[in-house]
Write a structure and sequence with these properties.
16 helices, eight-stranded parallel sheet, TIM Barrel, alpha/beta, binds zinc ion, globular
Length: about 350
């Protein structure tokens, strides 16, 4: 069965791969930037075309250029707290019940602002947002490829320090095609020894070998994207056997040109082959999407049904980095609410479908 708005929006959801800096409200950017620079537009609505990748976007360069426009204005703890709080509200408005928010604190430092200021601010924003909007959150700290090793060490130190206070894991982000994971082995070995969960961006800009590196040498428990494992059937089977969840973000993959259109995306193939597929947003504002949109697109363009999507939502809960008790409660709550909504949809058939 296919299911679209409004019931689709109402269903309880989990998003494990969401970048804070790519999910800032355009109206907030307008608000922050209007007194600091000469903007190319007069209203928040007009800002969208400068922040959002156009529907024709099929290149990583064009996609990343969108960040250039506003990135310098995020370098402030106050701004980061605000956008973390607002992200909770936005996610909650489409009934995301659990959200893992990732960010690289080293990218927001400068002047007197150090990584810890940014981490504390984001955790504060998430904590207030969770309280006010009935959503559970966890922060993932991104160690960033292409930056100075002292930055990696500091991000790692903060992850260890805040692991029980809002941080739930580490990620390795940045340009995987230019900076291999080789240099990060020791750091992720330490995370593994400290029992801190790890996800690694791999198999998107770089090939399947980067996913192999992530699972074999960087102790990845999940893979951010990982879509290019389609290039090697044997390795794909290994990822399946290892039950490694893939954080799939289909619109992002299309906009950055990994696949030329939704219909070429392997999400349905992966799912049918039994891989642990999860559906996520990546960059809500820059992609101009939300999770409801991604749930709709996989049904409309990739041949999947709502039952498949709900199954993937369960995969997301299972793969979440939160503690076991939170996970158990979340699972019960989401299953119960999903059942209630789906029963209502069935009772209304066929109009609601
Ligand atoms: Zn990402």
């Amino acid at each position: 069965m296919k299911l679209f708005a409004p019931a689709l929006r109402a269903l309880p959801k989990v998003d494990l791969h969401c970048h804070l800096d790519g999910s800032v409200r355009t109206s907030t950017l307008f608000d922050i930037m209007k007194n600091k620079t000469k903007l190319p537009c007069d209203t928040a609505a007009e800002m969208r075309k400068y922040v959002e990748a156009p529907s024709t976007c099929r290149s990583l360069t064009e996609f990343l250029n969108k960040f250039e426009f506003f990135y310098p204005y995020l370098k402030s703890p106050q701004v980061m707290e605000r956008i973390a709080y607002e992200l909770c509200e936005d996610a909650s408005s489409e009934n995301i019940r659990y959200l893992e928010v990732r960010f690289a604190p080293c990218l927001q430092t400068g002047g007197v602002v150090v990584q810890e200021d940014i981490v504390k601010a984001v955790l504060e924003g998430l904590s207030k947002g969770s309280r006010d909007f009935n959503i559970k959150t966890g922060a993932i700290l991104c160690i960033y490829r292409g930056t100075d090793p002292s930055q990696w060490e500091e991000t790692y130190r903060l992850g260890e320090k805040y692991i029980s206070s809002g941080v739930v894991g580490f990620d390795l982000a940045g340009d995987e095609s230019r900076f291999s994971g080789e240099n990060f082995k020791d750091l992720f070995k330490k995370a593994f020894s400290a029992l801190i969960p790890v996800t690694i961006h791999a198999g998107e800009a770089a090939g399947w070998e980067s996913v192999k590196e992530a699972v074999d040498f960087l102790h990845a428990q999940r893979i951010g994207h990982g879509v290019r494992i389609f290039e090697n059937g044997f390795f794909l089977d290994r990822i399946k056997q290892m039950k490694i969840p893939l954080e799939i973000c289909i619109t992002s993959n299309v906009q950055t040109g990994v696949f030329k259109d939704y219909s070429f995306h392997p999400v349905a193939d992966f799912y049918r082959r039994g891989l642990r597929v999860t559906l996520n947003t990546d960059d809500r504002s820059v992609s101009g999407i939300d999770l409801t949109h991604e749930w709709k697109i996989v049904q409309q363009e990739c041949g999947l049904e709502i039952e498949d999507v709900l199954d993937m939502n369960m995969n997301s809960i299972e793969a979440a980095f939160c503690d076991a008790n939170t996970k158990k409660l979340l699972k019960e709550e989401i299953q119960k609410e999903t059942r209630r909504i789906m029963e209502k949809v069935s009772a209304q058939k066929p109009q609601a479908r």
